[in-house]
Design a protein that fits this description.
Its cofactor is Mg(2+). The protein is an alpha/beta fold. The protein folds into 3 domains: 4-92, Udp-n-acetylmuramoylalanyl-d-glutamate--2,6- Diaminopimelate Ligase, Chain: A, domain 1 (3-Layer(aba) Sandwich), CATH 3.40.1390.10; 99-338, Mur-like, catalytic domain (UDP-N-acetylmuramoyl-L-alanine:D-glutamate ligase), CATH 3.40.1190; 347-493, Alpha-Beta Complex (Protein-Tyrosine Phosphatase, Chain A), CATH 3.90.190.20. The protein is built from 16 helices and 26 strands. Strand 17 and strand 18 (300-304) form a beta hairpin. Helix 4 (120-133) packs across helix 10 (309-324) and helix 13 packs across helix 14 (424-432).
Length: 498
């Protein structure tokens, strides 16, 4: 086990610290082992400073404790032979400490950060998958898990803790990874989790209403996302310049290296260093899409089984990223058809003489609207829409999503989607408040029963969209996390082995 001197770790912020070696950095007192450094900072739900006694009893080598008083910074004392050091604005500097502790692993990797309301996971996984096909060892961090392609370990957060991020980077570096794709959430940016991550490329997908329970309003939400491009270490920036915020940011970033990604929109390229623009999109009935494009790298045509206008943007953002990384345009064009859909993102289950299921993570108004639009344009069939809204989350989006589902579907079933400690009836009523034609809406709170009802009520040419949970394999009811998977329910109904 590698140990590091506490004095070295804290210089130049704190001087005169006694010589002491630490073996690990920990922010969760439950995981502490003798010799660890416990970093005690306030969190959203719990305050790490309340667990200092526990850390002492577990024989931590030292404790760093956040203080709001600048004049208290650097003061230390001993409690039962454990040194406790006060650190001003510690939570803002955990990423920096972790980066130093793990010997700056990001400097030896090319790291791609992807942020936006929707599309983060898809773009992250597309770059991961595409680069792997072309022979690069690529690691990834995000909603679907952390690890290498087809070997991901589950995670609780889209963007992990600052300590885990640096630990992960050091581990994949040891495994000869060359590239890392990382989803960067607004929470992760506000909470300084990626402050010391050197991004070679940062990508913006879009910005629409979500997480207003945390950010309060769209202005604060936009400011959180903008942090990645304005205050973090980024060499190149790729923006969806069709997005209303992307257009504004592109002009604000005129002095930076930017790539504008657009669909049938040549105007934005004059504001960017490089650009890529789709000139024509063809959709076939065999679940294929063909994208003809022009760009700073040349012209071409890629094909994919990912359907929907939003996936055209996702594919182009990924293509632009890989071109910036030095992959040849010819190789990318010839391998595009090998890309498979991302788990829980417009994932299709189609069998002869049975309804077609589509599972998608859409849990925001914009995502639900775009998903239903994609189904309409591609299939032009009768659509069932099964969805719910998360408890203890943004309540303002619930009636908006209800209105979208009602307007764009032939039949709507409102069900549960992680109600948590909120009453399911209240969530459902909030959704219903946005609906006018109640006759086309059913309320079936049990998600499994809702999907089964749609399956047995649908005709073989119907489409059943199950929105909201995507890849998730848990349903959170009160404080219980219950095993549950939309995909497993669908496969059982279709008589397929799991």
């Amino acid at each position: 086990m590698n140990k590091i001197c506490l004095k070295y770790l804290l210089l130049p912020w704190i001087k005169n610290i006694p010589k002491k070696y630490i073996s690990n950095l920990k922010m969760d007192s439950r995981t502490l082992t003798p010799g660890d450094l416990f970093i005690a900072v306030p969190g959203i739900k719990k305050d790490g400073r309340h667990f200092i006694v526990q850390a002492i009893n577990k024989k931590a080598a030292a404790i760093l404790c956040e203080t709001k008083k600048k004049d208290k910074h650097g003061i230390f004392k001993y409690i039962k032979n454990v040194i406790l050091i006060y650190f001003f604005k510690l939570s803002e500097n955990v990423s920096l400490l972790a980066n130093r502790f793990y010997k700056e692993p990001g400097k030896r990797l090319k790291i791609i950060g992807i942020t936006g309301t929707n599309g983060k996971t898809t773009v992250t996984q597309l770059i991961n998958q595409w680069s792997t096909i072309l022979g690069t060892k690529t690691a990834t961090m995000g909603t679907l898990g952390n690890g290498f392609y087809n070997s991901l370990q589950p995670t609780n957060n889209t963007t992990s803790s600052p300590i885990f991020i640096q630990l992960f980077l050091s581990k994949v570096l040891e495994k000869q990874a060359e590239l890392v794709t990382m989803e960067v959430s607004s929470h992760g940016l506000i909470q300084h989790r990626v402050k010391e991550v050197p991004f070679y490329i940062a990508i913006f997908t879009n910005l629409t209403q979500d997480h207003l329970d945390y950010h309060e309003n769209m202005e604060k939400y936009e400011s959180a996302k903008w942090l990645l491009f304005s205050t973090h270490k980024v060499k190149k920036i790729i923006l969806n310049a069709d997005d209303q915020y992307g257009k504004i940011w592109l002009k604000k970033l005129l002095n930076f290296y930017t790539v504008a990604v657009t669909i049938q929109n040549r105007k934005q390229k004059k504001y960017s260093t490089k650009w890529i623009n789709a000139t024509n999109i063809e959709q076939n009935n065999n679940n294929s899409i063909y994208i003809t494009f022009e760009s700073s790298w040349g012209t071409g045509r890629i094909s994919s089984c990912l359907i929907g206008h939003f996936n055209v943007t996702n594919l182009l953002l990924s293509l632009a990223c890989l071109l910036e990384l030095g992959y040849s345009l010819s190789d990318l064009i010839h391998t595009s058809e090998k890309i498979i859909p991302v788990q829980g993102r417009m994932e299709l289950f189609s069998y002869v003489k049975k309804p077609t299921f589509i599972i998608d993570y859409a849990h925001t108004p914009d995502a639900l609207k775009k998903t239903l639009n994609a189904i309409h344009s591609h299939y032009q069939r009768y659509i069932w829409c099964i969805f719910g809204c998360g408890g203890e989350r943004d309540q303002k989006k619930r009636p908006i999503m209800g209105a979208i589902a009602e307007k764009m579907s032939d039949k709507v079933i409102i069900t549960n989607d992680n109600p948590r400690n909120e009453k399911e009836k209240k969530i459902i009523q909030d959704i219903l408040n946005g609906c006018k034609n109640k006759e086309k809406i059913l309320i079936i709170p049990d998600r499994k029963k809702a999907i089964s009802y749609a399956y047995f009520g649908a005709k073989y040419h119907h489409i059943i969209l199950i929105a909201g949970k995507g890849h998730e394999e848990k349903q959170i009811i009160q404080n219980r996390s219950i095993n549950y998977s939309d995909k497993k329910i669908v496969l059982n109904l279709l008589g397929k082995n799991i």
